[in-house]
Amino acid sequence: MKGLEEWVRVISPNGLLFIVVPKRDSLEEDRVRPLTTIEELIQRYHEPTRPLTEFNEAIGHVTIFSMSLLEQIRIWYNNKHYPRSSLSIYSFLETDDTLGIGHQVTWQIHKEINISDITSSVRYLPWNNPILVRN
Predict the structure, then answer these.
(1) 95 CB contacts (<8 Å, ≥6 apart)?
(2) Secondary structure (3-state) at 89
(3) Which residues pair with 21 in a beta bridge?
(4) For the chain, which residues make up each domain, given as ranges?
(5) How far apart are CA 22 and CA 18, in angstroms?
(6) Residue 46's Cα: distance from chain center in Å?
(7) Average per-residue pLDDT for the chain
């Protein structure tokens, strides 16, 4: 979830975030594990208690995704960050069209443009800096 927030932060307004996440049956080890819930992801977001080094390939993926979990993640993000930013569904495939082992989603990023962010960036452009301007 923190990764999602960072991706949205660096993507331009109206940009696209394309992700493929593993389907439950992409690994044999994942088929017997329960689907990850949105509550579990929110708990990891607020209280990261397990380092990722605790997981290894022997037990499969850290998160077991479903189509509904991806939609719940989008709703969670929008509830947390609206109106500053939000995600809308651009495309959604139950099975990715490349390898066929993941769910594929593309979200469009909607952001409020903060004029102070723009003006602070412009202030430091080399041609606006009197020290660097040569006559």
Answers:
(1) 23, 101, 102, 103, 104
(2) strand
(3) 103
(4) 2-128
(5) 14
(6) 16
(7) 81
Contacts of 30 (CB under 8 A, 6+ apart): 22, 24, 60, 61, 64
Is residue 86 helix, strand or coil?
strand
Are 120 and 94 in contact by the 8 Å Cβ rule? The answer is no
- The tokens 């397990």 sit on which residue? 50
**Nearest Cα to Cα of residue 89 among 113, 111, 71:** 71
- What is the distance between the alpha carbons of residues 116 and 100, in angstroms, rounded to a whole number? 44
The two structure tokens encoding residue 121: 């960036």
- For residue range 84-135, what is the model confidence (pLDDT) as tens digits? 999 999 999 998 888 888 999 999 999 987 666 555 555 555 555 555 444 4
| Local confidence band at 9 (pLDDT 50, 70, 90 cut-offs) | very high
CA 68 to chain centre: 16
Q: How far apart are CA 13 and CA 123, in angstroms?
A: 21
Dist. CA 135–CA 24, nearest whole Å: 65
Q: Which amino acid is at 38?
A: I
Helix axes 67-81, 38-46, angle to 10 degrees: 50
